[in-house]
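How a chain folds remains the central question behind the approach discussed here. No coordinates are needed to read the tokens, only the vocabulary itself. For completeness, the protein is quoted in full, as a sequence line and a line of structure tokens:
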Amino acid sequence: MIPLKDNIPTDRFPLITVAIIAINVFVFLLLQGASLSGEQVDTKTVVEYGAIPHRVTHPGDKCLLVKVNGASGQERVLCQGDANYPAAAEVSGCSSAAVGEVCRVHLNQPPAYLTLLTSMFMHGGWLHIIFNMLFLWIFGNNVEDSMGRVRYVLFYLLGGLVAIAAQIAVSANSEVPTIGASGAIAAVLGGYLILYPRARVLTIIFLLFFFTFIEIPAVVMLGIWIFLQFLPAVGQLATPDVAGGGGTAYWAHVGGFAFGMAAILLFAHRKSTRYQQPRDPVY
């Protein structure tokens, strides 16, 4: 189920939404080193600027990016307190490929609290950023229109911070960097649901090897979306080790969405007049 557009035109150009999309794309392509060939983004940058829960919940602890078996070995993040955290004498620079050698990649990590912001503008791959930016474009422009540009910036950033806090709360000792705009965008989706539940969203529905286009009320589509985030999030509570073991940060989605629903009326001061009028189909 992939949304394509809604049927509520904006009253003015969504400058901030476009700017946020541009920043995310800039970071992904130029700072994270993504390429059109499909290669993975630069792990070093992710570890430096991603939000590592252990660093946030254990101020002062250091985290290393190490490679086992030398320069071409498997990469892993290790934080102080981890049983495998190497002593300084056991760690060397990554200049060789000796079997069994543990070598450290040099990092320039900002303070942990700053990574709560920088992590919001990073992504783990092409599908991650494409779908995030698609959702932001479809739903963010109307939310921005409802509250003005300055309020929208605050709403977006606060939503992202709440989302990361929710994920860290269930994976406080995780050494895996949390990255992505998904939490902040989830706040936008939650706000949109409160403002425009009867809006129609043109959506692609996939049925095995076939697909079709259908208009779905926003309350139905976003309700299905958050339900599909909440179920695995509950599963992560049952297996807390999995919650911090990589993959999708479902609690960030749930936390951001809840914030958006709860806070939207504190930020929004108007609804589109076109939402109240009879509307043509989305096509």
Observations:
- Residues 57-105 form one domain.
- The longest strand covers residues 200-207.
- Residues 185 and 232 are 19 Å apart (CA to CA).
